[in-house]
Amino acid sequence: MESISIFEIIKVGIGPSSSHTMGPWRAALFFLDHLRKNNQLHKVTEICTSLFGSLAKTGKGHGTDIAVILGLSNEDFKTIDTDKIGEKIEGIKSQGSISISAKHSIYFNYERHILFDYSKSLEYHPNGMRFEATLKDGSLISQEYFSVGGGFVVKQNTGHVATNPITSKYPCHSQKDLLDNCKRLNLSISELVMLNETAWQTKAETRKQALYIWEEIKNCIFRGVNKSGILPGGLKVRRRAYDLNKKFLQDQNFDKVADWIKAIKNGPKDFDTVNKWISVFALAVNEENASFGRIITAPTNGASGVIPAVMMYAHCFTPNFGEDEIVKFILTAGEIGTLYKKGATISAAMGGCQAEIGVSSSMAAGALTEALGGTKEQVCQAAEIAMEHHLGMTCDPIGGLVQIPCIERNSMGAIKAITASNMALDSDASAARLNLDNIIRVMWETALDMKSKYKETSEGGLAKISVNIPEC
């Protein structure tokens, strides 16, 4: 089984969805690269994209059409100015053309070239799409891709698009592998992960990347608490992190994230206050995500607020949570995420919201336990507890938007992660009757049993409720 770097699980992304935005965006870029490698890109006259299954049913709410257009325009979601996305899309639509390379533009008509097939789902995965390029001689070049969660893309039934698979020195595909390797090498979980990451980069580079992720997390939360107004999409959902932040800081304004964090640290630390700040941190991230903002995908966009909220909680309200603990947290969280990716799914279209909020809460619980000095057995126990209480959670976004109930679920996932960590830290892990391998298997079995209408199709659950004046 192929090893997965933790930085494929925790990475810079763009809202509102890793599977419905980032995945299709990457697929469009892969298709252009396919044409380029076959010396066909300059021969293309038009490209038609067909979206199937969940990508069709909730694609407009998730910005899948926008993502495809930007991908075919050779834009990078890691660097694009997110404030200019709307302007860019309107320009392409009005001009009727897309620049698929620096020297070649093709005809584009939104209604003709972005097709939502609501009645069909491709085999292999619900998030299927087909790109079809017409060449100057009239011939057609077609490729199918699947967005399988967390921004990962698979080409047809052949496996990951990425080439040159890497196997780490001490591969871990289960809790058993993880604990066995830790015991054999006398390492903590984060130390083992750091060692395995050397398959991709040096330890110094891994540490630098982890701290970069932390900086992006802080900046994302800070952007979120400093923006007010209504989220896009038509549900008229109002941003709440802005008002709550001002209320808790008594209308103080801060230009720098460091000063803002200092004010929180110097404020009250009673249970109610801490609990409310955790929600603010999570809401801030997911309100950014809902508005095409830049976030940290961990392991998905719909669940991108859980790990930031738990990390910011630890940074502000627990002692001695410095750079070393931050690195331990991110390494451990990423490794737990890889176990779910390989043993079950991180795609809501395959597993419901247990595959997003549940997995992120499990990642955060284990990571917090590691950072706070828990044993490797307690780390796994915390991760198991957190997922145990997300089993069966449906993915039922109203209007196909990552807003109701998605935003609030991140706050709840963060609270559960902290609670799970506290329980594990105060427990004898050797007395646990369940382990992480058990829970990952059961989560996957639950996903297979779950009806499709509860898997990111907006056809069941809360998505069936008519919302006129939402307050989420």
List the helices and strands and how they pair.
Layout: H1 6-9, E1 11-14, H2 18-37, E2 44-52, H3 53-57, H4 59-62, H5 64-72, H6 85-95, E3 97-101, E4 104-107, H7 110-113, E5 114-117, E6 128-135, E7 140-149, E8 152-155, H8 175-185, H9 189-196, H10 203-225, H11 241-248, H12 257-265, H13 271-290, E9 294-297, H14 306-317, H15 323-343, H16 348-351, H17 357-371, H18 376-388, H19 406-425, H20 436-449
Parallel strand pairs: 2-5
Antiparallel strand pairs: 1-9, 2-6, 3-4, 6-7, 7-8
Helix pairs in contact: 2-5, 9-15, 10-13, 10-15, 11-13, 13-14, 13-19, 14-17, 14-19, 15-17, 17-18, 17-19, 18-19, 18-20
Give a structural overview.
The chain has 472 residues and is an alpha+beta fold. The protein is built from 20 helices and 9 strands. The protein has helices at 6-9, 18-37, 53-57, 59-62, 64-72, 85-95, 110-113, 175-185, 189-196, 203-225, 241-248, 257-265, 271-290, 306-317, 323-343, 348-351, 357-371, 376-388, 406-425, 436-449, and strands spanning 11-14, 44-52, 97-101, 104-107, 114-117, 128-135, 140-149, 152-155, 294-297. It has a 5-stranded mixed β-sheet with strand order 5-2-6-7-8. Helix 17 runs antiparallel to helix 18. The radius of gyration is 22 Å and the shape is globular. The two termini are 41 Å apart. The model has no long low-confidence stretch (mean pLDDT 94).
Assembly context of the chains? single chain
Mean pLDDT: 94
List the total number of helices.
Answer: 20
Main sheet summary: 5 strands, mixed
Order of helix and strand elements from N to C terminus: HEHEHHHHEEHEEEEHHHHHHEHHHHHHH
Q: In what order do the strands lie side by side in the largest sheet?
A: 5-2-6-7-8
- Radius of gyration based on Cα positions: 22 Å
Q: Percent range for helical residues?
A: 40-55%
CA-CA gap between termini: 41 Å
According to DSSP, the number of beta strands is 9
Which percent range describes the beta-strand content? 5-15%
Low-confidence stretches: none
Helix-strand category: alpha+beta
- CA-based shape: globular
